[in-house]
Design goal:
The protein is an all-alpha fold. Helix content is about 70%, strand content about 0%. α3 packs antiparallel against α4, α4 runs antiparallel to α5 and α11 runs antiparallel to α12.
Length: about 375
């Protein structure tokens, strides 16, 4: 009897001193699964679970998982042209707690090499990114380093897949798309399916495995098309609307909504989204120009002229287009001399049919 009581007491003490409570173990299994699934909300849920459980004696056991998910959240934000600074800063703060054999600082350095979304990022920033790109040999060496490194396989595979996007930003040619590793998680499949080129069938597989993977739906809907059909615009609007609900601070999403509304002839709605894009990314050249075009098409010539002037003053890459559209708005207002000055400047920078036609009309008048 005494031995039995002693066993119960010892068991109770052991349970009380266990690093992870039994009640939390199931939550951690779920969190690990959510990381493997890989959607943004999945990663946020996993991060919150790790933050809650990683206290006291449990913290050393979960610190690498917490670090990896913080980096993954930051990368997903970056991939959607959102600011990842807070997530990367949180990951950086964990580095002193990581095991000595775990190269957390190096992994974070690699994560910061991966470029942001192509559509939501101003071209000037994309050009700067391209100039900073490491040579292909260095990228390949980094991917080999990741393959043999410490940490979870999905995390390292995700970083490796992200490095393939560098060739897109640097306008490098590639022949073969990255191969999907055997037994790859949907987290990794998503990244391979979105960069350096969108692979619709792979993203369909991801969406089937993880319903509600909003980012996968958005990227699949962004596949270029030669024919704008009702089916295409309907699917794109559904994807963009769902993404906007989850990522209202994504300039990639706001610009996409602006472009879609403009294509469908609703310039008033398009202007709202272009202005949202500029509020998020003040030097987004394409949003600035398309706003000018839409303002002109709804008869708001004065704001259009002012918007074009800002593009010209800032010397955006599309300055020639800004001169053209400012001349167009001035011509509508019968400001012929100002319009002639601007169309001549536009022609000095870029000669095309529309510049020649508008220039002929202005000079005739």
């Amino acid at each position: 009897m005494r031995r039995a009581c002693l066993a119960v007491v010892l068991l109770s003490v052991a349970c009380a001193s266990a690093p992870i409570r039994k009640a939390d173990q199931a939550s951690l299994v779920t969190a690990d699964g959510r990381v493997q699934e890989g959607c943004y909300t999945c990663l946020i849920e996993a991060r919150d679970t790790y933050l809650r459980v990683a206290v006291g004696k449990a913290r050393p056991l979960l610190i690498t998982k917490l670090f990896e998910v913080q980096v993954l959240v930051g990368l997903r934000e970056w991939e959607l042209a959102m600011d990842p600074a807070e997530s990367f800063k949180a990951a950086e703060a964990l580095i002193p707690e990581l095991p000595a054999t775990y190269p957390g600082a190096r992994y974070l350095e690699i994560a910061r090499m991966i470029p942001p979304d192509f559509i939501g990022t101003p071209r000037a920033e994309r050009d700067q990114w391209s100039r900073r790109n490491p040579p292909s040999a260095q990228v390949l060496a980094t991917q080999k380093e990741l393959a043999a490194g410490a940490g979870s396989t999905p995390f390292r595979s995700y970083l490796s897949a992200g490095l393939d996007c560098l060739q897109t930003f640097a306008n490098r040619r590639f022949v073969d798309l990255p191969k999907v590793p055997a037994e790859a998680s949907t987290l990794v499949k998503y990244r391979i399916g979105t960069c350096p080129a969108i692979q619709p069938m792979l993203l369909e597989e991801v969406m089937t495995a993880v319903p509600g993977f909003v980012e996968a739906e958005l990227m699949r809907a962004r596949v270029p098309t030669l024919t704008i059909t009702r089916t295409y615009t309907t699917e794109l609007r559904a994807a963009l609307t769902a993404a906007f609900e989850l990522f209202p601070r994504s300039s990639a999403v706001t610009y996409g909504l602006g472009a879609l509304n403009q294509i469908q002839g609703d310039c008033k709605a398009a202007i709202i989204h272009y202005e949202d894009t500029i509020a998020i990314s003040p030097r987004h050249e394409d949003a600035a120009l398309q706003r000018v075009i839409c303002l002109g098409h709804i008869g708001q010539f004065v704001p259009a002229i002012e918007g074009a002037a800002r593009i010209i003053e800032r010397r955006y890459y599309n300055t020639a287009d800004a001169y053209y559209w400012r001349a167009w708005s001035q011509y509508q207002r019968r400001e012929i001399l100002s319009a002639r000055t601007d169309i001549d400047l536009a022609r000095s920078m870029s000669v095309n049919q529309r510049v020649l036609v508008l220039g002929g009309m202005i000079k005739y008048d």
